Amino acid sequence: MGRESTDLRAIMARDERRRRMLNDPDLTGDVLLFALALDELLATRKEQGRRSLKNWVAEVAELAHGTDDYYQRYWGKKVIRDDFPRYEVIDRNPGRPRCVAPMVRREGVCGRSSQVWFVDPDPETGEGRYVGLCRRHRPGLEGYYERRREQWRRNGKPRPPANTGGVLRRYFNADWDAIYQWARPGVEPMEGGREATPPRPKLRLIPGGESDDIQEVPDGA
Predict the structure, then answer these.
(1) Stretch 128-146: mean pLDDT, rounded?
(2) Strand partners, 99
(3) Which residue from 165, 178, 160 is spatially nearest to 214, judged by alpha carbons?
């Protein structure tokens, strides 16, 4: 009776975790498919008493797409690379941005329709925004941009926290820095990021024993 009760609790916990994955607005597309397949791999591994997870990315790809060689070689790595924690400029005002050149005879900015636009880093936070310059103020583009960059450098080159990626690490405990760097060599994953919309259940990923943690990076790292 005790074992059956434990199995039932494990099944209910797994169903609840997967429900949260499916309802997480940040977990979509291939990243969602990867997460569900990884969750299934870990559950199956525990049931079978398997210890090794050396080829776990390929096994996840096989669960998601079958034995196709392309998916086993490349798909998992691409998904992890797409989930790499990073900062991306969010366009809060889709469409052509207005001219941000300061006015001389009145306070405020020009506000006219822009002829050119670019990413403007905030000197205080490093966060970017899309801004533009109209035909009249376009000749001052280089000077404006350089002044902003110089202010940013004088402030110690502040970097904003990640606002994109890092969703997989909400659900699975692992050495994600090493795994992300395996998928995207030479780039350091960023800290921070948005909190998960639902609560953050964790399934730990480790080879060996009764634990559910993964401490290994994939083969070829």
Answers:
(1) 82
(2) 132
(3) 178
Residue 130 has pLDDT above 50, yes or no: yes
**3-state helix/strand/coil string of 107-147:** CCECCCECCEEEEEECCCCCCEEEEEECCCCHHHHHHHHHH
Place of tokens 């480790």: 206
Q: Say if strands 203-204 and 172-173 run parallel, antiparallel, or are unpaired.
A: parallel
Query: pTM for the whole thing?
Result: 0.70
What's the CA gap between 190 and 166, in Å, rounded?
A: 9
- For residues 73 and 62, is the Cβ–Cβ distance under 8 A? no
Q: What is the pLDDT of residues 11-42, one digit of tens each?
A: 777 788 889 899 999 999 999 999 999 999 98
Task: State how far the alpha carbon of 86 is from the alpha carbons of 24, 115, 166, 180, 219, in Å.
Answer: 19, 29, 8, 11, 24
Place of tokens 């997480």: 24
Q: Report how far residue 219's alpha carbon sits from residue 183's, in angstroms, rounded to the nearest whole number.
A: 11
Whether 170 and 138 have beta carbons less than 8 Å apart is answered as no
Q: What is d(CA 120, CA 99) in angstroms, rounded to the nearest whole number?
A: 12
Task: Show the CA angle centred on residue 122, arms to residues 121 and 128, nearest 5°.
Answer: 45
Structure tokens at 28: 């979509």
